[in-house]
């Protein structure tokens, strides 16, 4: 088992850039994040099934075929844009209204409105999938487990999107301060 695991790791390390290029060449206008997610999902699945290596003559060809299949799945997914003016099912308020506290005084409301506008601007600069997972977890209160089931995405993919989104938002909001 240990030798098989090392063989798979060696292939992954050696070919990772090639895997990413393969995805980018075949899907025009794909974001770096989505290309990395496709490759990461395949790598994760193959690594967790190291014992299949002795059933496969060419593990590298198997990985490229798996990436191709994952790209087909990606292209079949309908993209679902999320609007910050969309009503929350539970409260009936828009996502933007959830950010603002109606009981605050005028100065606080002005500051919150400014923050809301900055946050809105920063969120609009995120890639759609990053924005969707950030809004769903931070504003709408969904758990990653719920989102994984709802969106049929691996939890690890959602976690990495949220992490990237948070880093970008921190940078954007810090630049505006």
Care to describe what's here?
The chain is mostly helical and 177 residues long. It folds into two domains: 75 residues, Rna Polymerase Sigma Factor, Chain: A; 82 residues, Arc Repressor Mutant, subunit A, CATH 1.10.10. It has eight helices and no strands. Helix 1 packs antiparallel against helix 2, helix 1 packs across helix 3 and helix 6 crosses helix 8. It is elongated and about 70 Å long. The chain starts with a helix and ends with a helix.
Helix-strand layout with pairing:
Elements: H1 2-26, H2 32-47, H3 59-76, H4 95-99, H5 106-125, H6 128-138, H7 144-151, H8 155-176
Helix pairs in contact: 1-2, 1-3, 2-3, 5-8, 6-8
TL;DR?
The protein is mostly helical.
List keywords for this structure.
Rna Polymerase Sigma Factor, Chain: A; mainly alpha; sigma factor activity; sigma factor; 177 residues; transcription; elongated; single chain; Arc Repressor Mutant, subunit A; WH-like_DNA-bd_sf
């Amino acid at each position: 088992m240990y030798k098989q695991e090392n063989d798979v790791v060696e292939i992954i390390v050696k070919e990772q850039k090639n895997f990413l290029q393969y995805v980018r060449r075949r899907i025009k206008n794909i974001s770096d994040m989505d290309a990395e997610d496709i490759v990461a999902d395949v790598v994760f699945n193959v690594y967790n099934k190291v014992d299949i290596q002795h059933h496969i003559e060419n593990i590298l060809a198997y990985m490229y075929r798996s990436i191709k299949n994952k790209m087909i799945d990606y292209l079949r997914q309908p993209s679902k844009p999320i609007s910050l003016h969309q009503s929350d099912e539970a409260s009936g308020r828009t996502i933007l209204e959830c950010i603002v506290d109606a009981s605050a005084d005028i100065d606080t409301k002005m500051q919150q409105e400014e923050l809301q506008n900055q946050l809105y601007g920063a969120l609009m600069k995120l890639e759609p999938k990053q924005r969707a997972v950030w809004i769903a977890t931070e504003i709408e209160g969904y758990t990653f487990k719920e989102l994984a089931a709802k969106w049929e995405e691996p939890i690890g993919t959602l976690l990495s999107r949220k992490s990237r989104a948070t880093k970008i938002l921190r940078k954007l909001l810090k630049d505006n301060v």
